């Protein structure tokens, strides 16, 4: 006794790979399909439409297949309204709650599609029937630990529509569409020039640039170049950790990073004390802004952030020394601060940090452009896999990347 | 006008590399030395002695040189008592406070050497003149954020003696002395057998084995083998994160890891919901132990920990989903819990996690034996560099390492 | 003045990604398309058909677009016969010669499609009008340095049809179709079990298994397990280098690999002489078979190859010591020997060698199943990128992989 | 019944680590030692002296220990003359022949120490009693395949003295002494500046700079910068392969590398034909110099080599397409050509190639300064392990390294 359902897809479903993904999912999961209708877009600008009847041996299999099709943007023929259930208590979602993708999403409520605000992966969707500005219904994401008793949570995918990103018509510039991998075999300087162009264009258009930076930016000697970009107004927010800030501050206070003089490369020794002394100095001052004000810190990335009112989030980690007073030690609180940054961002530069990049990436919708730079190809691959539709991945040395980027950006600025 | 000081070294200073390190440090930092006395140990079991007069152009250089010599165990001729200063307020150390190494350390107080308890890197040393059991003086480490106003903190290195580890006489077994690097060119199964022997021997001698495990242990299919080791009593404590526990619990509840059936390898798809549903189930139950009790979780590493009273610490991170109720979200609180684990450990197995391994490694003295296993050579190198004197680093696949280890351990047990 | 051409595609063109690739290529290269006809396969077993009119601003652009479409299996409407030109001299192809893909290919001659024999990437196609068994026309590949004056060489792609691989209907087993990447997040032992199943099945069906092995197989202690597989008849040919053979022979003659005892792990020292002594011993004997016959070599992979008449190719390299008398030092001659091996192979296991795997991979059609195993993810990615349609990539430790594989294979055999 | 021998060491045996290595070797191998005499150098410029009596349980163990001590520069008390045996036939060494290290070496003949010419690892030493210019004895290395029947070959280490490199007194500049590892945590641009200074200084002193380059130099867009360095006279010889030359020539002929426009990054597609067409063009012309002369090749690294009479060796490999007529396809012949280059070199830059770097490294004495640059840390580690006493290893992106290096070098030149 087989079971079946009919779904519809529309859009640039061939060149975005959605059609392929749907056909493949049915076959992989052991189902069968019949194409009931297929209207191919005649030109590259026309959208296509497909109606697909899916058959499976049992309900469980059918549900698994429909789940895959749903994620690729298929919608049930004659979709029902979304199913909502109240959360039984704080932080507890109803059983079978809908877990979000990072793609633009809509829920069907009262026979109309409502966009879900603040889309982000692995969240619940909460609907407020009269939560909108004019008492309209409103839907938005909530992470599990923010769920409050009584929240109306979406619990089935039938009334939910996902819009996976499609290849932009017209040039997509340097950002490859869903490339999902990085080639080590690309000309480095030309690629950096493209990133510089994006950065300049975003700045000129009043967009928000979020830089996510790891301690290697400082160790590798790129701190000064990043500080220049902050000073010149190309960075609108910084997301980093206690280690990044400490190394940057050490460079200002002692002229060293991990005890080594960044210019002369002298004294690259273990057991140096500058690192921990820097932390104790800043604790003594009461914080980074206070240390800048007191004249203890006179240059560097953190200095420029303070001087130029660029907001920063320093998220704590279990490997931190100290930590600095500015570091948010609670992971949930830090995630909330990062989430605010991520929602504002139009362009995200992830520089040599896996931990902070994943944390930021977790909060980004798939539509935000990102640039991931790391010397470890596994890190770049992992970040691109998390699913920005428009992303550049670059396996390079952060110590030459940032100075070259800054040169290209500021050259371009001078023109 | 040059300045000079005389220091003494004793022990197996040639084959431990301490002599070489001292000579090199003087030359690297631009000083000069004169060997005033050198009594070489005649046989391999005899210790050597060296008295060295160091000359430098100025006080700053001399201090830098003496700092390096100090770290290699050199002591000033006629060492003074340690200098102590009260902390001006909570979390604030006196200027110029002494920052610890991870080697056994003594402070000179009242003309006697007192061992520093709980030695750990990058801490302050606090001395309580009458803090010992019989009103004796007592010295111990404190991390910066634990400093309390009025604590007597060591502020100069002249009255402090470090004892860097030396090559053990007799065999040092598989643990290479200060090898500081790993060779990829070693026979894998023979190396795993040596780790198994260490594990069995530690267990038989009543030692404490701490396992630090990352999520890859579960993804790679090694969860069942680790669960066996817990069940059979070879694991005394577990240090992990929210991700490890979630994936392990998902495997028990849904039979999958990241949505893929671990046995059949079916459905390796993105967008699966098991991961986040697992978290919501455990939140609903109130915690892992409760989920075990309720019969929701019936196998796996966390299950065996609960059933066999093996204590675990789940340290939070900014990339966590959920998190599970058992996860300690505050980084400082989590570090304190990890510190307790680290102090008890006689043998530490670090399995496929950089973040948690560094966090644990930060709390370990250099004398604790460690085994670092990861598929990424950079991770293994970084962990070994942190300075256990007796360490095995192995670049291998955790998914074959743990099952092979468990087989060897349990075979050996059966004999 | 735009130019245009019409092409046709047929087959499982949606789920194999060919349609997507064609649409994308036109857009990327600045052309425009019109879908003149599209018959979608109604069920997963039905083939689809698409007729596409492509327009571009100029001939150069159109040619670039058609080249991409050609590579994805598109054929000109009413295709002409292939254009042939005689090679002007030995090793010199006519200008504009057609360079092959690694997919099954046909040339149109005398208004009929003729399959190209021995398809392999980056070759020329030579057509002999009466070269077939019955005086039929015959087409086959030739590498550039094998071209002879007067060979009739294909010089345009209009009369050539490429058949890119398609996703097999029915299960494709462990071999992901065109996955083009590897996930580190797969259960290791389950994956190895699937490779074992393939190996057993290939052997049972009388297929030919080619093992490509690097020196790390021996260093990592996996030599004995590979020798077992040879002895038990699961390896039909071996492709390796001078280093692999030397290390394997050293293990037999001295019990060491790079001077280290493979069992006890003793004496892992530089400067050992066993390696070079092994080579000099085998030179003295006259070759590997002679050394086996003389009783100098009594175990190991090379020993089993000699004893079980498993043919091997040892290809030379500029980093070789010696080399052994069996090593083919000329690269072109070695490639020819490898080419013979590659053409026979039904299943290729590439074990921990980039150089030899690339050399073998260069000679393989896209239809040969391959398994690529290496601890370096970049190596596995690079090998999978070279384009086998059915490939397993596995990032693991060869030192545990081969013994586990041998156990699974021989278990399965015992059943 | 134990056996014993007495050896002597002299030089900077403490800070070079030789004493430590000797003590450790005796203990590791199960022997025992007695220091019969030890005169420590009083100042950093004074040499030390040690006489060591080594005892072992049996002759085999003693021989192993003495082998290790020998490699670290220990010499038997009252050393005998070297033992010489004639090679029984071409390419066949006498049993027990001495296999060289890469350190400066002397043989004792007729009661005098004679330096061994052209020292290189894993060779035999041949002595010609009257082979010197004035009928003096002469000793030199020969690789195994160059041995001729009757050559007098050294067969025991007692009459041979190795001089392992010692830490230079005075600054050793950027080249760390025997650092044997690379730190990823160094400022990139400062390190590149040091390499630039070395390059300029070597050129100014009339030294010979050998560049070893892989294809990634071209893919990454660094070809033009390397071409500049050749044109400006900073490169005296080039060691590369068929792939490097082909990609460089493709860039000149088609403006692409692997089919992608290096400036605009357009058309990064598989299946491009430029690569193989480039090879066929150069074959047609008869070689690279002919292609330059004919005006087919008008820029790039190979062009500048031809125009500026910079000799190059293109060594063949089994993964080559073509190959180009200039490529030496026989591995032994190619090694001989590389050997000639290596012997002349004062400074070797190894740029993004493991295969060619190892081949060159195999021919270098430990005294030649080398710079190893690769994005893969395992490659850099492996190259440094091969034992140059003065080496810089840098994990960076070759695509930004070479342009930055060229800028620094030519800036410095302009001053």
Automatic annotation (TrEMBL), chains A, B, C, D:
Swiss-Prot/TrEMBL cofactor(s): NAD(+)
InterPro entries: ArgZ/ArgE-like, ArgZ/ArgE-like_C_1st, ArgZ/ArgE-like_C_2nd, DHS-like_NAD/FAD-binding_dom, LOR/SDH_bifunc_enz_cons_dom
Arginine dihydrolase ArgZ/ArgE-like C-terminal second subdomain domain boundaries: 193-405
Catalytic activity, reaction form: L-ornithine = L-proline + NH4(+)
Keywords of the record: Lyase, NAD, Nucleotide-binding
EC number: 4.3.1.12
Class of this enzyme: lyase
Record-annotated Arginine dihydrolase ArgZ/ArgE-like C-terminal first subdomain domain positions: 104-192
Domain LOR/SDH bifunctional enzyme conserved: from-to ranges: 5-103
Keyword match NAD: yes
Record bears the keyword DNA repair: no
CDD domains: SDH_N_domain
A Pfam family matched in the record: ArgZ-like_C_2nd
GO MF annotations, alphabetized: nucleotide binding; ornithine cyclodeaminase activity
Function: Catalyzes the conversion of ornithine to proline, with the release of ammonia.
Family: Belongs to the AgrE/ArgZ ornithine cyclodeaminase family.
Name of the molecule in the record: Ornithine cyclodeaminase
The organism of origin for this protein: Halopenitus salinus
């Amino acid at each position: 006794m087989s079971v079946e359902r009919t779904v519809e897809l529309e859009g640039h479903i061939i060149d975005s790979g959605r059609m392929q993904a749907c056909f493949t999912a049915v076959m992989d999961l052991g189902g069968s399909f019949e194409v009931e209708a297929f209207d191919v877009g005649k030109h590259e600008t026309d959208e296509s439409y497909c109606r697909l009847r899916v058959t499976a041996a049992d309900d469980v299999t059918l549900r698994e297949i429909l789940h895959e099709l749903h994620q690729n943007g298929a919608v049930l023929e004659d979709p029902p309204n979304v199913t909502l259930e109240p959360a039984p208590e704080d932080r507890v979602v109803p059983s079978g709650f809908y877990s979000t993708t990072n793609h633009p999403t809509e829920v069907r409520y009262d026979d109309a599609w409502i966009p879900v605000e603040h889309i982000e992966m692995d969240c619940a969707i909460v609907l407020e029937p009269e939560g909108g500005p004019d008492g309209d219904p409103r839907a938005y994401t909530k992470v599990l630990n923010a769920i409050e008793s009584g929240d109306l949570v979406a619990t089935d995918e039938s009334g939910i529509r996902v819009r996976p990103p499609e290849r932009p018509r017209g040039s997509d510039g340097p950002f490859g569409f869903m490339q999902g991998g990085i080639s080590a075999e690309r000309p480095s300087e030309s690629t950096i020039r493209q990133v510089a162009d994006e950065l300049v264009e975003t700045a000129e258009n009043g967009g928000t640039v979020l830089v996510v930076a790891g301690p290697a930016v400082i160790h590798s000697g790129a701190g000064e170049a990043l500080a220049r970009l902050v000073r010149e107004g190309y960075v609108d927010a910084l997301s980093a950790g206690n280690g990044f800030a400490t190394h940057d501050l050490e460079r200002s206070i002692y002229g060293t990073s991990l005890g080594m003089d960044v210019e002369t490369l002298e004294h690259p020794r273990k057991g140096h004390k500058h690192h921990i002394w820097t932390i104790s100095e800043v604790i003594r001052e009461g914080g980074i802004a206070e240390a800048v004000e007191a004249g203890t810190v006179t240059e560097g990335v953190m200095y420029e952030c303070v001087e130029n009112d660029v907001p920063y989030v320093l998220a704590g980690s279990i490997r931190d020394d100290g930590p600095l007073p500015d570091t948010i030690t609670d992971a949930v609180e830090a995630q909330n601060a990062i989430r605010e940054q991520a929602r504002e961002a139009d362009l995200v530069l992830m520089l040599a940090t896996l931990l902070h990049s994943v944390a930021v990436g977790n909060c980004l919708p798939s539509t935000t452009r990102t640039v991931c730079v790391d010397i470890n190809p596994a890190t770049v691959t992992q970040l691109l896999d998390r699913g920005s539709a428009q992303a550049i991945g670059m396996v390079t040395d952060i110590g030459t990347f940032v100075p070259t980027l800054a040169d290209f950006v500021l050259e371009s600025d001078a023109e």
